Amino acid sequence: MLKDSAKAYDAYERSSLSGKINPSLLNLKHLVYLDLSNNYFDEEIQVPRLLGSMGNLRYLDLSGAGFRGGVPHDLGNLSNLQYLYLGNNYNMHAENLGWLSGLSFLKHLDLSFMYLQRVFDWLSVINALPSLMELKLSSCQLYQFTPVPIANLSSLTTFDLSFNNNPNNLIFGWASGLRNLVFLDLSGNQFKGSLPHELQNLTSLKHLDFSLNHQLNSSIPDWLYRKSHLEFLSLKENNLEGTISGALGNLTALSSLDLSSNKLEGNISRSWGRLCNLNSIFLSDVKLSQEIHEVLDIFSGCVSGVLEYLDLENTNLFGRLTEQLGQFKNLKYLDLNYNSLSGSVPMSIGELSFLRFLDLSNNKLEGVVSEIHFANLTRLLSLGIFGNSLILKELWIHFRFGFGEIPNLTEADRSTSVDLSSNNFSGSLPLVYPNISLLYLSKNALSGSIFQFLYHERNESKTMMFLKLEDNLLSGELPDCWMNWQGLYMLNLDNNKFTGNLPSSIGSLSLLLSLHLRKNNLFGILPTSLKNCTSLMAFDVAENWFVGNIPTWIGQELSYMEILTLRSNKFDGDLPTELCHLTSLHVLDLAYNSLSGTIPSCIKNLSAMVSIDYDEGNSIFYRSTSYFSTTLYLEGAVLVTKGRASEYNNTLNLVRSIDLSGNNFSGVIPNEVTNLKALQSLNLSYNSFSGRIPETIGAMTSLETLDFSANQLTGEIPQVISGLTFLSNLNLSNNNLIGKIPLGTQLQSFDASSFVGNDLCGSPLHKNCTGTVLTPAYDHSGGKNDNEHEVDWFYVSMALGFVVGFWSIIGPLLVNRRWRSVQTSLRIPQLISQDLRIVGRVRAPVATSISSRGDLNSGDHVRSSFCSFTIKGT
């Protein structure tokens, strides 16, 4: 499939027009229809003005043709034009749309993806086009407009204003005049409050898409249930709440319903059984709390004959999955993932011969599933059954399940994805058909070599994109044959028993986005060929035996890197300054190696650690799209905190962490580290850092974990640390720090073990601070003074002499009244300790703890909030 798609795209590229449009086109004086869409006029600055001279044109389609720059106003001269399509030219813009006023016969207008942010009169211009029937303005960044009381477009039947982020709510008043409107798409606009009541006036409406307006927080209004002509209704991914009304059964024309990902609850009503045209139902994340047999019974009448898509993922369904399922003969998509379904898989599932996507994962199903269940499912593309207690016996492509082996998947030519992770498979890896795009066999007990698996059909290029084999017992060396697997986007071999060098052919995986080799017995140096994997975003080789310097090409060539984990290896040498080029880096973990030298000041260039873009979402995932379904791989990272390894998935995109602990770094902690204001976890423990804790550390307002323990730091703890209001874990133990622990609720709440092994006093230590604590002079060089914690008696005696001499002169003068008046103007300077009030974000801790190697030491808990990245083009 992937190969066919690639061929089709190559053919499309070869057939696309490019270059400039020849002016001889004007010789076609009677031309009425011109379609130049989906070409690539990459050398053309903008739509050529000469097109404005083709006065007889009725139809002009320039969509998706690679044009850029401003729209020539000459197009306004095409007074006979009825169809104008300029959409999907992502680099085109317009400063105004006044030129449209000359197109009085215009019926169809598409300006989608054109940059129109500076156009404020667009609504009044559109309102003056009386013949307009179709208007598409998707993703034009239309934030504002000059208000127009009500629409004057009696012919308009299609209006698409989707993904303009936040257009003015006054649009609803104008839209209420569109009495003949049939199609309305207002998705992705961040509208607030409730569904606008003005829309109830649109009596002809058949298609309403109000999805992805995340600030809608009302219940579904009653007027919506009176839209008897409505055929398509999507309210997905809003914040709607309340109970789903049984009145929805009045929408008898409805063919597609999507209420997924809201805060809705209730039951599917018996009245839904009247929706005899219902082709698609998407209710994922709606809390139905209903028995599955009741739901199937409601739809078992006229609905069962037309239903093709049924998504009930995570809806609190329970009970036994019954033979009723076999009534839904036309089902193509069935998702019952994350429910509490029990009992066995009904035999009638084999009657769903049109099924392409089936997910029964994460339920309480049990019993035997055999080939009989799936023998007729010849169209099945994706199957999910993990997270149950099923025993599969000679299933479909003749593999056994339970405490058995997986024979070969070479007959799986119709399957694009296979996920059998988190089961009890044993034995060796199966041979696979080359066109499987996704294979998840992680968290089983598979053993033996990977050689046969990789070399099967060795002369045929594999199109697999996602391969997960982590958490098994696989062993032996990694064969040097990865050049046959160049379609891989993700490879995860974590936590196996692989040994030997990393083969150089791994560098031929030029599309690779994620490479995980953690916790094996691999050794040697990292092959230079890896620098060819220029799309790599996540690279984890922690807990192996790799040696040598950290390669400079990581920073020079792998510019998209977001997760870099080289923890617990044998890397040595200095920290290369080239790593400072990784401006997208979220997580840097180099702990427990033999690295030395200083932290380079260019560390401030890690700009993704300076600030966080909260609009990017929380999760890092890669998307694989096949003919029928979309598969996501959620990126994960293991971070060591408080001596434990915690795995982060859903919140990974918000995590910012640096761990350099357990090395031989020395010198001062550079002030440039404190430029990383988004950093949440900083661990420099068990090194030989000297000098003072940077006074500018107060700028790191996002810090939640700070570990400087087991170093040679000197001087006092900066007062500004008490202003780090997110700080939940602190360890400054076993240094040469002196003086009083700064006062502040944050610091006094930590355990005394955070400060032991220093010459400190004050709470939470039991050692009281008596007398005056001398504050050593600030060492601007940042250098270490081995004796700076000792009293220098020369300077003490000099200070005492100064005091005695001063008062022997000034004392008698104070007796005199005239000098007393002078005394009132004297002020003794005092060190003012300011209480810094820092207002920040509230984060909820999300982390799953897993066991770690015993040689991991200190660290702290990283917290972040809940957060889809797609594959970057290559």
From the structure above, extract its key features.
disordered N terminus, Leucine-rich repeat, LRR (right-handed beta-alpha superhelix), disordered C terminus, 13-stranded parallel β-sheet, single chain, 22% strand, mainly beta, 55 strands
Give an overview in words:
- With 874 residues, this protein is mainly beta.
- Among the domains are: 217-396, Ribonuclease Inhibitor (Leucine-rich repeat, LRR (right-handed beta-alpha superhelix), Alpha-Beta Horseshoe); 537-787 and 836-850, Alpha-Beta Horseshoe (Leucine-rich repeat, LRR (right-handed beta-alpha superhelix)), CATH 3.80.10.10.
- The protein has ten helices and 55 strands.
- The protein has a 27-stranded parallel beta sheet, with no helix packed on it.
Topology:
Elements: H1 2-15, E1 33-35, E2 59-61, E3 68-70, E4 83-85, E5 91-93, E6 108-110, H2 122-126, E7 134-136, E8 158-160, H3 171-175, E9 183-185, E10 192-193, E11 207-209, E12 215-216, E13 232-234, E14 241-243, E15 256-258, E16 263-265, E17 280-282, H4 292-298, E18 309-311, E19 318-320, E20 333-335, E21 340-343, E22 357-359, E23 364-370, H5 371-374, E24 382-384, E25 389-393, E26 417-419, E27 426-427, E28 438-440, E29 445-448, H6 451-455, E30 466-468, E31 473-477, E32 490-492, E33 497-501, E34 514-516, E35 521-524, E36 538-540, E37 545-549, H7 553-557, E38 563-565, E39 570-574, E40 587-589, E41 594-597, E42 621-625, E43 630-634, E44 637-641, E45 644-648, E46 657-659, E47 664-668, E48 681-683, E49 688-692, E50 705-707, E51 712-715, E52 729-731, E53 736-740, H8 745-748, E54 759-761, H9 793-815, H10 817-823, E55 848-850
Parallel strand pairs: 1-2, 2-4, 3-5, 4-6, 6-7, 7-8, 8-9, 9-11, 10-12, 11-13, 13-15, 14-16, 15-17, 17-18, 18-20, 19-21, 20-22, 21-23, 22-24, 23-25, 24-26, 26-28, 27-29, 28-30, 29-31, 30-32, 31-33, 32-34, 33-35, 34-36, 35-37, 36-38, 37-39, 38-40, 39-41, 40-46, 41-47, 46-48, 47-49, 48-50, ...
Antiparallel strand pairs: 42-43, 44-45, 45-55
